[in-house]
Amino acid sequence: MLRFASYAFTPFVVVSTVIASLSFGGAFAFGPLMLIFAVVPGLDVLVGLDVKQPDDASLSMTRLYRAMCRVWVPLQIGLLAYALHALTASAQGLDGGEGFGLLALQVVGLGVATGAVGITYAHELMHRSNRLDRGLAEVLMASVGYTLFCIEHVLGHHRNVGTPADPATSRYGESLYSFLPRTVVGGFRSAIALERARCERRGIGALDPRHRLLRYGVGLLLLQAGILLWLGPIGWLVWAGQAVVAILLLEIVNYLEHYGLERRRAPADAASAVAGERFERVRPEHSWNSAHAVSNRFLANLARHADHHANANRSFDQLRHFEEAPQLPTGYGAMLLLAMVPPAWFAVMNPRVQAWRGRAVPESGERVGGQEAAAA
């Protein structure tokens, strides 16, 4: 129960910093950013790693962890409504650059909450088998305008990870700033193609409510129209700003989770088909792992990414630590900052990718994509 409390408590720390930012302004506006990019990385160093494996007795707690994710949905809706109203009112009284700077910090702080916590919980819920959880995931992703992620991540990324067909796998020597437009545009196209193919197989028409492109599109239009009617253009800009921050956080995390890790082309036996070619099956070795205790408390074990890709249906409280998976040198907060500085990122990560290749890929193996160019 103490372990559960540590997971359940940490998201509310993020919310508290956002509320303090909105209520008091000033130095408090830096709170969410300081928490994620300074306090949590510092605690990761002090507290260290958590490599404890889940045991069978903890299976009875899984429903409680699932409830924790579900409860976050109305909390985020309430936080968003409060923040949009408060920030719109603040924006109408601005008369100088300092005021706009404060407003921008508060919007970024809100995006940190909806991205770091909201999208993390949406990610957990969209992998569940029941309609309630998948529907709640769609609500959370709609709140940041990125509902198509529910399609591409589950049906595309998990199948294609580590191959040229996956827009969410960052390539060796590819900077974050080259990756971002490629993954956003590629993910959008992939989601549309995947949903159209699914609906064609099942005989679902373009105007059928079961068609997610229709449902997501109408839902986002209604959401934005409602914000415009309620708060006007300023309110919509605040919503759009926090959505951009949340999406950027998501895609930067995608960048660091699979950087340079490739699945080899393989014979038909013991392999999976991707875009007409055969690749070795996804294993824990195809994701960067991180066992830093504090980061994983804030991100619902998202950094135990190796087990998540090897066993996508496993609840986050049951994710295991794999020593054989490539390990990130620190938690996600610090790695996010590192990714924003490409020369530093390449200096830290490229030797680790090369070391991984030496262990995971025999010299006679055929790497995917032939991505051997050194980073500039």
User: How much helical structure, as a percent, in the residues?
Assistant: 55-70%
Spans of at least 5 consecutive residues whose pLDDT stays below 50 are 362-376
Distance between the termini: 49 Å
What is the helix tally? 12
Question: Which radius of gyration do the C-alpha atoms yield?
Answer: 21 Å
Number of individual domains: 1
Q: What is the succession of H and E elements?
A: HHHHHHHHEEHHHH
Structure overview:
With 376 residues, the chain is mainly alpha-helical. It has one domain (2-360). Helix content is 63%, strand content 2%. The chain has twelve helices and two strands. Strands 1-2 form a two-stranded antiparallel sheet. Helix 3 packs antiparallel against helix 4 (97-126). The longest helix is centred in the middle third of the chain and has 46 residues, at 212-257. The termini are far apart.
Topology:
Elements: H1 2-24, H2 31-47, H3 62-91, H4 97-126, H5 131-142, H6 149-160, H7 176-202, H8 212-257, E1 271-274, E2 277-280, H9 293-298, H10 305-310, H11 332-339, H12 342-360
Antiparallel strand pairs: 1-2
Question: Key features?
Answer:
two-stranded antiparallel sheet, single chain, 376 residues, 2 strands
In a nutshell, what does this entry contain?
By secondary structure, the protein is mainly α. It has helices at 2-24, 31-47, 62-91, 97-126, 131-142, 149-160, 176-202, 212-257, 293-298, 305-310, 332-339, 342-360, and strands at 271-274, 277-280. The protein has one domain.
